[in-house]
Amino acid sequence: MATQYGRVLLKLSGESLCGPSGFGVDPATVDQVSEQVVRAYEVGVQLAIVIGGGNILRGGQVQAHGMERATADYMGMLGTVINAMALQDSLERMGVVTRVQTAIEMRDVAEPYIRRRAIRHLEKGRIVILGAGTGNPFFSTDTAAALRAMEIGADILLKATKVDGVYDKDPLKHPDATRFEKLTFLEALNMGVKVMDSTALSLCMDNNLPIMVFRLEPPDSLTRAVRGETIGTLVSV
Fold first, then answer.
1. pLDDT tens-digit readout, 129-147
2. Number of structural domains the chain divides into
3. Are 22 and 169 in contact, with CB atoms under 8 Å apart?
4. Model's pTM, two decimal places?
5. In 3D, which of 148, 143, 159, 147 has the Cα closest to residue 234?
């Protein structure tokens, strides 16, 4: 079965790489994520990835101890680059050609983010991993994912989480929570859904970029998502 989408942007959380410890980068867990990415890539989709940094540093936690917000955000951006490099290493060991681009220049380890170059890499069949968020403090990696998805002309933003969609309340705390199969952007904004911040949702709404929220669950949830199967929750107009 072919992919429904020609080009997608996958948003991964930093926590998806940390394994049982809940912190740092666990190589075995990174390989499990990479295996899913490779399966989806082999369907024939052009794939870009934005990755978070919460497994290395949570901005809100260090701010609570008095750190300046901008400093905490920049530290978090550097954490995303560590994750991007770990994912790149894993994917390339599996035989997939990748490029890491960063919004903060660090040419010894990655290319600077240049939109046209990123698109060219995708056209050549490379997976592009985008680190360092937007390069600006006060913006989440969710917002970075929405921004990059629109810049590269992605057909959909795939948001991989630890829950299998959007619920009316936290399903990890409330067993009776109801999952939505589809939501409009306005419904998601009015609900104040926790899986994506309001800035990212508003950006997608203003530019008519659909979002699929799903659980990254081995072995094939990502492959099913790029094929357009009904998994998780679709947020659109």
1. 999 999 999 999 999 999 9
2. 1
3. no
4. 0.94
5. 159
